[in-house]
Amino acid sequence: MTRRLLLSFVPLLPVLRAAQDRVRGRLRQDASLPPAIILRDGNVVLLEGDGATAGVLRDTRLKDDDFEALGRFASPGRFVADPIHLRALFVHRGGRRLVVTYWCDVCAIRAWTPGPCQCCQDEMALDPRDPALPD
Ligand SMILES: [Zn+2]
Question: Max CA-CA distance within the chain?
Fold first, then answer.
């Protein structure tokens, strides 16, 4: 009985996996407006996420970048990015899809949201990189 119950859920798995969505377009940063993606067709999708994600979305070094987020549409005009530890934020530069990271050259420390280095307290450099590279 238990076995049959388990098997009956198996066909649902591909559906669940397909539920992850992505949004890509120009990252809108405007002090008076929430962060958003401007789609190629001109439609605006508001972009939100956890605190660390919000920090990335407000990083002015990414303003107007060709930006991509993985997560879920909460509605057609609102997208919630996956939590920061799932590495859901990308920029497309020079034909490459790069995950957004931050790097301190002095301490060789990587982070996933902007801010001061946890070691030397200097502002970390934006360091978009190949997502296939290890952390
Ligand atoms: Zn440092």
Answer: 60
pLDDT tens figures, 12-66: 555 555 568 999 999 999 989 999 999 999 999 999 999 999 999 999 999 999 9
Calculate mean pLDDT across residues 2-20: 55
Question: How far does residue 110's CA lie from ligand 1's centre (Å)?
Answer: 9
CA 114 to ligand 1 centroid distance, Å: 12
DSSP single-letter state for residue 20:
-
Name the residue type at position 26: R
Q: Which two tokens stand for residue 101?
A: 């990271």
52 Cα to the center of ligand 1, angstroms? 18
R_g of the chain, CA atoms, integer Å: 18
Q: Are 35 and 47 in contact (CB under 8 A)?
A: yes
Query: What is the residue-averaged pLDDT of the chain?
Result: 90
Contacts for 19 with CB less than 8 Å, ≥ 6 apart: 72
